[in-house]
Specification:
The chain has 353 residues and is of the alpha+beta class. 50% of the residues lie in helices and 15% in strands. The chain has 13 helices and 12 strands. The protein is globular and about 70 Å long. The relative contact order is 0.20.
């Protein structure tokens, strides 16, 4: 079931990020003052501490690699609404680094530190990533291997703070909560993309025509191949889906979870259009452990978000708008696309034991 904001969602789905960085950037409440009172090379000042411009250039180089591999170098001039890809990526990098700095301060406040063993692993991980840059490009860079190590250290502290702060979260998950089902569906959209990139309802005549089509398809599902109908009529290129509770629209979930294996719903109305759903498997047992982990992680994130917002609201932050604005993605040397992949090999999996 696709997100209606297809362009934005595609960018977000395609750029693969580690669990740690997702934790670091998922929370709102990042407020800061814009100023030009900086020496060159400083991105921001956070509660007296400094974020270097080198750190931003590290993440920008990785973003450039990922986007141009998926699209091409012309992507930076593409727009969604009033935002270009370049503006979107630069804003994401800026917010990521500032929020990571907030999490470092939380680590200090909670006496969370990196161990000697972890420090050694950080050195190895940074050197491994740095070597990938040397193999892929001889272009000089504005950052060095120590910049990579500091970034990896920030990711590790973000994870450690997250798990330490949520260590008392209930880890018991019921069978119903962990249930995952497999469905096929037909989606008849009643929305369209507006000139500013948003989603708006179809004009009334088109809306009624779509509803009539959806109603006629309901009667066909009993005697026709459901997948064939979906391929022919659905406004979504995908028509099959596995999901657990809390992952989809409430109306869609209510109808889908109420079906037994082989059952077909009536017309399900949502804010974005009409669905007809067929249950292929009403309980995929093989996904139980994975689903339990996702539910527990979601509980942790919900609990941590308020702690983070309360903490971040007390921090004084200044941002070097003038220097950062002058960076052009076309002038950024490409990364190797392995920044998060290498970090994950050294650290992320250990947090889910």
């Amino acid at each position: 079931m696709r997100c209606p904001m297809e362009g934005i969602c595609m960018w977000k789905r395609k750029i693969i990020m580690s669990a740690a960085i997702c934790i670091a950037v998922m929370f709102t409440g990042c407020a800061y003052r814009l100023t030009t009172g900086f020496r060159p090379g400083v991105l921001a000042k956070v509660d007296g501490g400094i974020i270097s411009m080198d750190s931003a250039k590290l993440l920008l180089s990785e973003s450039l690699y990922s986007y141009e591999k998926l699209f091409d170098s012309g992507v930076w001039n593409e727009t969604i609404g009033s935002v270009t890809a370049q503006e979107y990526v630069k804003a994401s990098v800026k917010d990521t680094l500032i929020r990571m700095e907030y999490l470092k301060l939380m680590a200090e406040d909670m006496n969370v530190v990196v161990s000697e063993t972890e420090e050694a692993k950080l050195e190895k991980a940074a050197k491994e990533y740095w070597d990938t840059l040397a193999r892929n490009s001889k272009t000089p860079r504005d950052f060095d291997v120590e910049t990579v190590r500091e970034f990896y250290g920030g990711l590790l502290l973000a994870e450690k703070v997250f798990y330490e702060a949520t260590s008392d979260i209930d880890t018991e998950v019921s069978a119903d909560e962990a249930r995952v089902i497999d469905v096929q569906y037909i989606f008849i959209s009643t929305m369209k993309v507006s000139e500013d990139g948003g989603m708006v309802r179809l004009p009334e005549s088109e809306y009624r025509a779509k509803k009539t089509l959806a109603e006629s398809l309901v009667s066909l599902t009993a005697e026709s191949d459901f997948a064939a109908l979906a391929r022919e009529y659905s406004d979504d290129k995908e028509y099959s889906l596995q999901f657990g509770s809390g992952e989809r629209d409430a109306e869609f979930e209510k109808a889908a979870f109420g079906l037994e294996m082989g059952g077909i719903s009536g017309l399900v109305e949502t804010d974005y259009g009409y669905y007809i759903i067929k249950c292929i498997n009403d309980n995929i047992e093989s996904n139980y452990e994975k689903r339990c982990s996702e539910i527990i992680l979601s509980r942790r994130a919900e609990a941590f978000s308020q702690l983070y917002v309360d903490f971040a609201g007390k921090i004084e932050t200044e941002f070097n708008f003038k220097e950062y604005e002058n960076i052009e993605m076309k002038d950024v040397p490409s990364g190797s696309g392995q920044l998060y992949e290498i970090y994950n090999r050294f650290f992320v999996s250990t947090q889910f034991d």
